[in-house]
Amino acid sequence: MIGSHEQKDLFSLDNLDADTLHEECGVFGIFGHPDAGALAVLGLHALQHRGQEAAGIVTFDKGHFIAERHAGLVGDAFGRKSDAAKNLKGEFAVGHVRYSTAGGSDARNIQPIFADLAGGGLAIAHNGNLTNAHTLRTALVAEGAIFQSTSDTETIVHLAARSSCVRIVDKLIDALRQVEGAYSLVALTSKKLIGVRDPHGVRPLVLGMLEGAPILASESCALDIISAEFVRDIKPGEMIVIDKNGIESHFPFKPQPHRFCVFEYIYFARPDSTLEGRNVYEARKRIGEVLAHEAPTSADMVIPVPDSGVPAALGFAEAAGIPFELGIIRNHYVGRTFIEPSDRIRHLGVRLKHNPNRAMLKGKRVVLVDDSIVRGTTSKKIVEMVRDAGAAEVHFRVASPPTTHSCFYGVDTPNTDDLLAHRMDVEGMRAFIGADSLAFISMDGLYRAMEKPKRDPNAPAFCDACFSGKYPIELTDISGGARDRQLSLLADVA
Q1: Segment 265-321, tens digit of pLDDT
Q2: Which CATH architecture has domain 279-458?
Q3: Sequence spans of domains, the chain
Q4: DSSP SS3 for 376
Q5: Distance CA 292, CA 459 (A)
Q6: Per-residue pLDDT at 415
Q7: Which of 21, 167, 324, 367 lies at a C-alpha separation of 20 to 30 Å from 378?
Q8: How far apart (Å, rounded) are the C-alpha atoms in residues 295 and 292?
């Protein structure tokens, strides 16, 4: 796994969730509201699905930056039992929820990252991954730079600090012109809130408004929780600069083909968010509909693998004319770390989160719908669980193409060799997970669900590298074309 390489509790949710993909983080920023700190807490709470390892907020008040950065969930870090939220005075705030990819899960990597530069303080929160961060870092360290974290985000801060530009906005532009990779970031100075998306627009960033206060957030659901108005998506390569005089839009980077991450629609984003003009829930239902037409089967019921498989399963059931049922019940009250079990019961780990509805399943032909298959171990356990509950047949349908390649743009993905679809064809995967049949939505089918006629191999409308192996942004830190390995920066730097 990318991220921290430290040993984990074998029965922690980190281990149980190792067979899923994880978004790196979510960002939030607000300018000119008396309750900026509290609103940032609520915004991050809405973005909790994008990162559960740590949460941080930086505000500015009366000439001082105030930082609260803590491990754990937003509710734990900034809840009633904590004084952290009370400390966040001021009308400007930026915040971040983290799932570690680059740099690991150390406390020193919790964002927003803050530094005093010539010209004033700068706090940055970043969603994505820089694909030349290690190369840049090596050069900066050789020139005497002293890094305080192992996060790729700190590379941006060092580049900005060394810029010969005078204004902090220009320093940030200078720094970002030197980096490669995917980034949506929010930054705070003593006078400005800044939002930027990389020129390919891989990661989402939206603009909202609450009582005259502009807001930047990874997803629109962070606006809904505070009753803010959605204004628009920040465009690829756009820099938004917000100060007391209003909002300015700049395009300081060379234009690039738009490559929004298609997996945001499949899994990462919350279903109630709208990104790039598409409601995520509706997109997932369309995926299920297309999947039902591409891979029909005779069955008595369609069952989602909760919770991420629910919209696609609904779409599949409606298109196929097969009843939708909750044949697997998810336990939502499993903590981040559970118990230290004996070896004899470790295999029961999947049942911490999922339990079959036996009365519903017995003797039935079942279609299981999930968003993806990564290593395949969880899918195998789910199929076994449904069979043990008495299902007569188990057919597995996947609302994404086979995940054959690692992501280098801010998603926590196993190394390519650990991906089941990289090692096996569909029949081999079917045998591995033990299903009676297995089918994935086709690449063209996925694009049709996204309301595109089909995938243009020469100019795809999305970043789909995890399915196609076609990476739209240079992977500078990977030497010798060894694309089966993660970026060297993703291991902790000594």
Answers
A1: 999 999 999 999 999 999 999 999 999 999 999 999 999 999 889 999 999 999 999
A2: 3-Layer(aba) Sandwich (3.40)
A3: 13-259, 279-458
A4: coil
A5: 27
A6: 85
A7: 324
A8: 5
Write out the DSSP string of 151-171: -THHHHHHHHHH---SSHHHH
Given the residues 25, 261, 407, 466, select the one marked as catalytic.
Answer: 25
Residue-level length of the chain: 494
pLDDT per residue over 393-430, tens digit each?
Answer: 999 999 999 999 999 998 877 788 899 999 999 999 99
Q: pLDDT averaged over the chain?
A: 88
Q: Say whether 466 is catalytic.
A: no
Nearest to 249 by CA among 282, 297, 216, 295: 216
Tokens, residue 165: 């530009």
In this prediction the pTM is: 0.89
What is d(CA 183, CA 127) in angstroms, rounded to the nearest whole number? 6
Q: Is pLDDT larger for residue 145 or for residue 342?
A: 145
CB 71 within 8 A of CB 84: no
Q: Calculate the alpha carbon distances from 140 to 37, 133, 135, 143 in Å.
A: 34, 10, 9, 5
184 vs 195: CA distance, rounded Å: 7
CATH assignment, 13-259: 3.60.20.10
